[in-house]
C-alpha cells in the first residue's frame, strides 16, 4: 500500500499464487486510487484551514497515515480470506472511498468539535478522537484497494502505477482548486473514486453492467447531497462566523483558489467598523466598510473612498511613522483591501506600491468595489504588485522612504488563541533584514501587532527587529527603534540610521494627542510610560528595555513567555507557551489564568496523545495479539529499526514541507510539490533497493544511512543559504529547486525500508506484518512530534533528529540470510 512514510513496498505482503497471479493487474484504477489519496490529503489541508486553521497540516498527514496503516493491519491478518475475494472486494473498496470521502466529511461537519474549548471543556477530547477516526476512513478504504492489488498481482507493475498516479494527483488537485471551490472539489474527488471503482471492475472481470448502474446512481447521490453538508462551515469562533451574526450582515460573494477562500460581507443595518486600536480622541469613526475575510478569519476591509471621512486613519498607532516624517514613496507589504494604501495617500504620499499575494483580493478592489473604493487600485500614484511579500523583498532593488508591514487582524475571538502553531515568515529576523534593504538610508520600516497582557506580541516583535538590526553594521538598535501602544495595538518603527530629535518629538506629540503610551524611544524614561492605557506597572517598557541591556539573554530565558526572536527556522511568531509556566497558569485558572495558554498548543498535545493511542490500538496491537509466532530474538531489533525508519522519514518530510513554504510561498503549494517529490522518488529508491543489496550486501543500509545523513545535512545548508534568494524566482524555478533538493534525499530514504522487509522476510516472514505496523505507528505519530519539536527548537533541529533516526536504523539493521554465492563483508 502507499504511505508517505515508506512508499509502496513490494516485500510488505507476499504475492498471490494461483488464479490472480497470472491475471492482468488493475493498473489504471490503482493509479487513480493513489492519486486520489494524495489529492485528498491536500484538499483536507484547505478544508481544515477554512473550518479551523491551516497549521492543522500535521493532523491531516497523521490521520491519512492512520487510515493507511490500519488497512495494512487488516490485510495482514485476513490475507488468505481477502485473496479469495479480491476481484469483488477491490472495486468495492474504491466505491466506499468515494462514498465515505463525502459522507465522513459531511458527518464531521455536524460534530461539535471546538478545540478552543479544550481549556474548559475536557469533553472536546472525545469529539476530537471521533473526528480523527472519521476522517481516516476514506484513507482506510484506499489503503485496502492498493494493498490488495499489491498482494494479488505483479508487484512491479502495480508499484509503477501507484507511484505515477500519486505523483500526478498531488499536482492536479492544486489546479483543481483554481477552478472549483473546496466543497465542489471534494465532490469531484468522490466521483473520481467511483470512476476508479468502475475502471477497476472492468479491468478485473469485464462484468460491469450492473455495477455501472449502481455507481452512476451513487454519483448522482453525491451531487444531490446538500451543499451545506460538504461546503466547509467555519468554526463558530472564526471571524467570518461572528461577523455574520451581526444584524443585517450578509455574505454577498465568495471566491476560492488554492491560496484562500475569500468571503465578502456587507452590513446594511449595523455598520462594519474595523479600526483596531483607534484612539478615543479620534474626531470620527471610519467610513462605510466592506469586510473581506480570508479563510473565514483574517479581516481585510475595503473602505468607501470619502476623503472627508479618512481622518480616523491618523488616530491609530499604525499612523506613527507619518507623525515622525513625511514619506513620499511608500511600500505596503500585504496591501489586502487597501487600508494601509489609503493611509499613505491620506498622509500625503506621492507614490504607493502595494504588494498582495492573492489576486482575488486585488481584483475585488479593482472591479466589484472599484467605484466604492474610489478606484484605489487604479489611481495613477498607486501600483499594486501581485506577489508574495518575501519573494518581492528578495528581488526588488528600489528603495522607499517608508516600508509598511501591514497588520492582518481577525474580527473576533478564535484566531489568536489557535494561532500559536501558524507559521509566519513575514515576522522573522531574516524577513526584517530583507525589509530594511528596501528602506532608503534615513527611511523607516514599521509593523503593527495586536497587544496582549502580560506583554508578548509587542516584545517579540521588538526582539525580532533588534536581532535584525544587530546583523547590520550601520544600525544602533537602541537608537534606531521606537515602539508605541494603544489599548489594543502596538506599532514598531525602525529607522535606517539614528532617530533624530525631531522624529522623537513627533512621536511624543503623537502619543500625547491620541492618548497612546510610548514603550521605547532613545532616551525615554520609565516615568513617560504607562500614562494613558494604564497597567499596575509599566510592564511593556520594562520588558522592551531589557532587550537592549547586557542581561537580555537572561531576560529572554527567565521571562514567563517565549518572546525570543522569530526566525525562518522557528517561524511561530504567535507561540509564547513555556512548559514551566503551566502549573502557574493552571493554579490561576479561577481568575482566568488558562486564557493565557495558547489553545493551539494544547490541541497539538491532545492530538499527539490520541495519535499514539489510536496508532497502537489500530495498527500494532492486533498484530501483537494475532502474530505470536516468529523469531522472538528479532523482535527488539524489528521495533527499533522499523520504528526509527517511520519516525525519521516523517520528521524529514514534515520539516522540509514547512521549510519549503518560504520557497513556494504557500502551505498548499509546498504540500503538493514536497509530498509528490518525496513519494515518487522514495518509491523509485524502493524499486532499486535490491541493486543496493547486491552491491553492498548486508552493509547496504549502513551506507545508505550515511548517504541520507550527508545529503540531508547538505540540503539543510543549501536551504539556509539560498531559500531567501530563490523565493523571488519564477514559480517554475522554485518548483525545480524544490524537486532538485528533495529528490536525492527521498531516493535514498526509500531504500532502507524495502531492504529491511526483504531481509526480514528471509529470516522470519511472520514478523513482516508486525514490522510494517511498527513503521506505520511511528509514521502516525511523527508529524505531530515534528511540529512540537519545531515550535521550541526549530525545523533545523527536526531535520537533525530525523537524520539521527536513520543513523539508529543503520546500526540496528536487519541482516539478510547469507548465501555462499554472495557472502557480504563482515559488518562493523
Q: Which helices and strands occur, and which strands form pairs?
A:
Blueprint: H1 27-51, H2 57-77, H3 79-83, H4 86-109, H5 124-152, H6 155-179, H7 182-205, H8 209-224, H9 227-230, H10 239-243, E1 249-256, E2 261-267, E3 289-294, E4 298-299, E5 302-303, H11 320-324, E6 329-333, H12 339-346, E7 351-356, H13 359-366, E8 382-386, H14 389-395, E9 400-405, E10 409-410, H15 414-418, H16 429-436, E11 439-450, H17 457-470, H18 477-480, E12 481-485, E13 489-495, H19 501-514, E14 517-520, H20 539-545, H21 552-558, H22 582-587, H23 599-626, H24 635-659, H25 661-664, H26 667-687, H27 689-696, H28 700-726, H29 731-749, H30 751-763, H31 768-793, H32 795-811
Parallel strand pairs: 6-7, 6-9, 7-8, 9-11
Antiparallel strand pairs: 1-2, 2-3, 3-4, 3-5, 4-10, 11-13, 12-13, 12-14
Please tell me how large the radius of gyration is. Answer: 28 Å
Structural category: alpha/beta
**Straight-line N-to-C gap:** 33 Å
Helical run tally: 32
Are there runs of 5+ residues with pLDDT below 50, and where?
1-22, 410-418, 819-828
Shape descriptor reads globular
Portion in helices: 55-70%
Name the assembly state.
single chain
Q: Please indicate the percent range of residues in DSSP E strands (runs of 2 or more).
A: 5-15%
Outline the structure in words.
- Helix content is 55%, strand content 9%.
- It contains 32 helices and 14 strands.
- Residues 1-22, 410-418 and 819-828 have low confidence and may be disordered.
Amino acid at each position: 500500500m502507499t504511505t508517505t512514510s515508506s512508499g509502496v513496498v513490494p516485500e510488505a505482503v507476499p504475492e498471490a499464487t494461483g488464479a490472480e497471479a497470472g491475471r492482468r493487474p488493475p493498473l489504471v484504477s490503482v493509479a487513480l486510487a493513489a492519486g486520489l489519496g494524495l489529492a485528498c490529503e491536500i484538499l483536507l489541508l484547505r478544508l481544515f484551514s477554512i473550518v479551523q486553521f491551516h497549521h492543522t497540516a500535521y493532523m491531516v498527514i497523521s490521520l491519512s497515515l492512520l487510515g493507511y496503516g490500519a488497512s495494512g493491519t487488516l490485510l495482514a491478518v485476513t490475507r488468505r480470506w481477502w485473496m479469495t475475494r479480491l476481484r469483488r472486494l477491490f472495486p468495492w473498496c474504491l466505491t466506499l472511498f468515494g462514498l465515505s470521502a463525502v459522507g465522513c466529511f459531511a458527518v464531521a461537519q455536524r460534530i461539535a468539535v471546538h478545540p478552543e474549548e479544550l481549556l474548559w471543556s475536557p469533553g472536546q477530547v472525545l469529539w476530537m478522537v471521533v473526528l480523527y477516526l472519521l476522517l481516516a476512513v476514506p484513507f482506510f478504504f484506499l489503503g485496502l484497494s492498493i494493498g490488495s492489488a499489491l498482494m494479488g498481482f505483479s508487484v512491479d507493475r502495480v508499484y509503477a502505477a501507484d507511484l505515477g498516479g500519486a505523483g500526478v494527483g498531488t499536482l492536479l488537485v492544486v489546479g483543481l482548486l483554481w477552478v472549483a471551490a473546496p466543497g465542489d472539489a471534494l465532490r469531484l474527488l468522490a466521483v473520481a473514486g467511483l470512476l476508479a471503482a468502475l475502471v477497476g471492475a472492468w479491468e478485473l472481470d469485464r462484468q460491469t453492467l450492473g455495477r455501472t448502474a449502481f455507481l452512476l446512481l451513487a454519483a448522482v447521490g453525491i451531487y444531490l447531497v446538500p451543499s451545506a453538508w460538504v461546503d466547509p462551515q467555519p468554526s463558530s469562533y472564526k471571524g467570518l462566523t461572528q461577523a455574520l451574526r451581526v444584524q443585517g450582515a450578509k455574505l454577498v460573494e465568495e471566491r476560492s483558489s488554492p491560496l484562500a477562500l475569500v468571503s465578502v460581507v456587507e452590513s446594511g443595518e449595523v455598520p462594519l467598523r474595523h479600526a483596531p486600536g483607534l484612539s478615543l480622541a479620534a474626531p470620527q469613526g471610519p467610513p462605510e466598510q466592506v469586510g473581506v475575510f480570508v479563510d473565514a478569519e483574517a479581516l481585510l476591509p475595503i473602505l468607501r473612498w470619502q476623503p472627508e471621512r479618512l481622518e480616523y486613519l491618523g488616530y491609530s498607532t499604525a499612523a506613527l511613522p507619518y507623525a515622525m516624517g513625511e514619506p513620499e514613496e511608500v511600500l505596503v507589504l500585504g496591501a489586502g483591501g487597501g487600508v494601509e494604501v489609503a493611509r499613505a495617500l491620506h498622509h500625503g504620499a506621492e507614490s504607493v506600491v502595494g504588494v498582495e499575494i492573492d489576486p482575488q483580493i486585488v481584483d475585488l478592489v479593482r472591479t466589484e468595489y472599484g467605484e466604492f473604493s474610489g478606484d484605489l487600485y487604479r489611481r495613477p500614484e498607486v501600483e499594486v504588485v501581485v506577489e508574495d511579500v518575501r519573494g518581492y523583498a528578495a528581488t526588488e532593488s528600489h528603495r522607499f522612504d517608508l516600508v509598511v508591514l501591514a497588520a492582518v487582524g481577525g474580527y473576533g475571538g478564535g484566531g489568536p488563541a489557535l494561532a500559536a502553531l501558524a507559521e509566519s515568515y513575514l515576522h522573522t529576523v531574516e524577513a526584517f533584514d530583507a525589509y530594511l534593504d528596501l528602506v532608503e538610508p534615513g527611511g523607516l520600516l514599521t509593523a503593527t501587532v495586536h497587544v496582549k497582557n502580560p506583554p508578548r506580541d509587542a516584545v517579540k516583535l521588538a526582539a525580532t527587529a533588534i536581532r535584525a538590526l544587530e546583523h547590520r553594521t550601520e544600525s544602533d538598535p537602541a537608537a534606531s527603534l521606537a515602539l508605541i501602544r494603544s489599548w489594543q495595538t502596538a506599532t514598531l518603527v525602525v529607522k535606517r540610521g539614528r532617530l533624530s530629535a525631531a522624529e522623537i518629538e513627533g512621536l511624543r506629540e503623537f502619543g500625547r494627542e491620541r492618548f497612546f503610551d510610548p514603550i521605547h524611544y532613545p532616551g525615554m524614561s520609565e516615568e513617560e510610560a504607562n500614562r494613558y492605557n494604564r497597567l499596575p506597572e509599566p510592564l511593556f517598557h520594562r520588558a522592551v528595555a531589557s532587550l537592549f541591556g547586557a542581561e537580555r539573554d537572561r531576560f529572554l530565558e527567565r521571562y514567563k513567555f517565549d518572546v525570543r526572536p522569530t526566525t525562518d527556522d522557528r517561524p511561530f511568531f504567535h507561540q509564547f507557551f513555556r512548559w514551566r509556566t503551566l502549573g502557574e497558569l493552571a493554579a490561576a485558572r479561577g481568575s482566568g489564568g488558562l486564557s493565557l495558554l495558547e489553545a493551539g498548543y494544547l490541541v497539538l498535545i491532545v492530538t499527539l496523545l490520541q495519535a499514539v493511542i489510536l496508532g497502537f490500538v489500530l495498527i500494532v496491537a492486533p498484530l501483537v495479539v494475532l502474530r505470536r509466532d516468529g523469531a522472538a530474538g528479532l523482535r527488539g531489533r524489528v521495533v527499533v529499526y522499523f520504528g526509527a525508519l517511520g519516525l525519521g522519514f516523517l520528521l524529514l518530510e514534515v520539516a522540509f514541507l514547512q521549510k519549503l513554504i518560504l520557497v513556494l510561498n504557500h502551505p498548499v503549494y509546498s504540500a503538493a510539490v514536497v509530498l509528490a517529490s518525496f513519494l515518487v522518488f522514495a518509491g523509485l529508491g524502493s524499486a532499486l533497493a535490491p541493486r543496493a543489496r547486491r552491491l553492498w550486501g548486508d552493509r547496504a543500509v549502513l551506507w545508505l544511512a550515511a548517504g541520507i545523513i550527508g545529503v540531508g545535512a547538505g540540503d539543510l545548508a543549501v536551504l539556509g543559504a539560498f531559500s531567501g534568494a530563490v523565493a523571488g524566482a519564477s514559480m517554475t524555478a522554485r518548483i525545480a529547486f524544490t524537486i532538485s533538493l528533495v529528490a536525492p534525499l527521498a531516493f535514498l530514504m526509500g531504500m532502507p525500508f524495502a531492504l529491511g522487509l526483504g531481509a526480514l522476510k528471509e529470516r522470519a516472514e511472520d514478523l513482516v506484518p508486525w514490522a510494517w505496523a511498527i513503521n506505520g505507528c511511528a509514521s502516525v505519530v511523527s508529524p505531530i512530534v515534528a511540529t512540537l519539536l519545531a515550535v521550541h527548537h526549530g525545523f533545523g533541529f527536526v531535520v537533525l533528529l530525523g537524520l539521527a533516526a536513520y543513523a539508529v536504523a543503520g546500526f540496528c539493521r536487519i541482516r539478510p540470510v547469507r548465501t555462499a554465492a554472495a557472502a557480504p563483508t563482515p559488518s562493523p
